[in-house]
Amino acid sequence: MPRGNAPQSKVHYSGKDEDFVIMVDSVKAVQEWKDDRSIPLAQVVSGFKIFVTHKHGAQNAHDAASKQTLENEFGTKNEDECMIKILEGGTLQETEVG
């Protein structure tokens, strides 16, 4: 996770009932993973936590996504599978933290 004024990278996925956000190490790490799926998720995702924004966009408060919310949106409670779907279908965002 970045410290100080380092950029914070995340992937925002707009689902049918919720918006989901995962923190990633960098935009470059996601792009490299998309090109080479042999790269472990641990080298792409920061913290292995999926957040929901309650349809308030990627910049607002985030709560942890429940297993039921994941099941409703992605058809699985497996967080790794959900993260892959978010990485594949989400929008990369990078913001300065200060």
Estimate what percentage of residues fall within beta strands: 25-35%
Task: Find the structural class using helix and strand composition.
Answer: alpha+beta
Helicity level, as a percent range?
25-40%
DSSP, total strands: 5
Main sheet summary: 5 strands, antiparallel
Distance between the termini: 14 Å
Instruction: Give the overall shape, derived from the CA principal axes.
Output: globular
Main-sheet strand order equals 4-3-2-1-5
Poorly predicted regions? none
Mean pLDDT level: 87
Order of helices and strands: EEHEEHHE
Radius of gyration: 13 Å
Number of helices: 3
What does this structure look like?
The chain is of the alpha+beta class and 98 residues long. It is 29% helix and 31% strand. It is built from three helices and five strands. The protein has helices at 27-35, 67-74, 79-89; strands at 7-14, 19-24, 45-52, 63-64, 91-96. Strands 4-3-2-1-5 form a five-stranded antiparallel β-sheet. A hairpin with a 4-residue loop joins strand 1 and strand 2 (19-24). The two termini are 14 Å apart. The mean pLDDT is 87.
Task: Describe the structure concisely for a colleague.
This protein has helices spanning 27-35, 67-74, 79-89, and strands spanning 7-14, 19-24, 45-52, 63-64, 91-96. The chain has 98 residues and is α+β, with helices and mostly antiparallel strands. The chain has a 5-stranded antiparallel beta sheet with strand order 4-3-2-1-5.
Summarize the topology.
Blueprint: E1 7-14, E2 19-24, H1 27-35, E3 45-52, E4 63-64, H2 67-74, H3 79-89, E5 91-96
Antiparallel strand pairs: 1-2, 1-5, 2-3, 3-4
